[in-house]
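#lab-general

N.A. 3:47 PM
ok so I finally got the sequence cleaned up, no stray characters, all 157 residues accounted for. can someone with queue access submit it? mine expired

B.Y. 3:52 PM
send it over

N.A. 3:53 PM
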Amino acid sequence: MVGYLLKNTVSENGTVARGVCEETEEHYLSCVTERTKIRQGPPLAYTEDDGQSWTVLPDDTIVSLNMWGFTRSFLDEAAAGFPAFLDKTLAENPLKGEYFLPSVVSRLIEGGKARVKVLRSEDKWYGVTYREDKPTVVAAIAEKTRNGLYPDRLWEV
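B.Y. 4:20 PM
back already:
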């Protein structure tokens, strides 16, 4: 799994969801906890009660943006757990249910069925979570293209 620094992954335009990672000294993942409402700082923080209280997260907290390298066995495990997730979600909150990959990974780690190396990246991550994010992302891609990090054309016709 590629782990990013939280400070490099938030939006200026609202809250984001990130998998907050804990890792061993050897940089193996010990668990991932989904935080669905993380705000940009200062300080970076998340809420679980619609903003009544906030818990501060350090800028260098490692987070998952779902950049994984899975084997076939993971897909089999994820598929096996999906029916129970679906039953629970349909009964509790069918419009907001999401089968979080990090939750599956954490369950497998806790059960001794998986081991995941965390590959740290200090690169800035760009994404369009909100409509207002688009100009920042477009400008970042244009700059990377000007600097030769991205090709002028990804696909030749």
